[in-house]
Amino acid sequence: MSADPTPASTTEFRALAHARLDGFERAEVPEAPGLRRAAVALCVAAEPEGPLSVLLIRRAYRGRNAGQWALPGGRLEPGETPRAAALRELHEELGIHAEESDVIGALDDFPAASGFAITPFVVALRDLTELRPAPDEVHSVHRIGLRRLAEPDVPHWVSPEEAVPGGLPPGAAPAPPTGIRMLQMRFGPGMTIHAPTGALLFQFREVVLLGRTPAESRVAHFAQPDWTHH
């Protein structure tokens, strides 16, 4: 059995992420009429007496994106930079005070079907003592271990029909095949994540954890399920 390739400490992760992101030529979504911008944090922290993991949330069951899997983040405020927005949202949603020096770098903008261009920032926390989720925005907080994220059985490619939550209704006929395949990041029972969040986790895995080249790990073309289009 091969050794675990994922870093074992925050110090190791920061060194690895810097090495792989400092030279990463990220793809940006250009300005366009009607385009809105958002930012999210791929926040890496050590579990209490455990391995490193990425923080994931399930949004509150009300308002925009009710009940969906997400990374901490949201839309930019007027005059705000994407980096500042990611750090602000991390604090507002989870009570985490991250410093500028905790931001390692950014991955590709993702052009979401909702009309937002999402900029993901990789954040490595030196210390995470307490989470304070905002109940009006966050239903629950989850951790995805870096080792699990890097495992080969996590990414799956399915047809749009297979991406319907719970499968097709009884008696419903599947739509004609289109040739489109959707990414599913399958972390365990009840935890299957699609784009945009699944795409951002996939690129983080490919670039930062597995050392793939930008050409091997672009995600802007990944299709999204219909329920994420708002």
TrEMBL record:
**Keyword set includes Repeat:** no
Q: Which domain of life is it from?
A: Bacteria
InterPro entries for this protein: CoAse, Nudix_hydrolase, NUDIX_hydrolase-like_dom_sf, NUDIX_hydrolase_CS, NUDIX_hydrolase_dom
Q: Does the keyword Protein biosynthesis apply?
A: no
Q: What region holds the Nudix hydrolase domain?
A: 35-181
**Per UniProt, which keywords does this protein have?**
Hydrolase, Magnesium, Manganese, Metal-binding
Q: What class of enzyme is it?
A: hydrolase
EC number(s) of the enzyme?
A: 3.6.1.55
Q: Which CDD domains match?
A: NUDIX_CoAse_Nudt7 (cd03426)
What cofactors does the UniProt entry give for this protein? Mg(2+); Mn(2+)
List the Pfam families hit by this protein, alphabetically.
Answer: NUDIX
Question: What does the record give under GO molecular function?
Answer: 8-oxo-7,8-dihydrodeoxyguanosine triphosphate pyrophosphatase activity
Protein family (similarity comment):
Belongs to the Nudix hydrolase family.
Q: Quote the protein name from its UniProt record.
A: NUDIX hydrolase
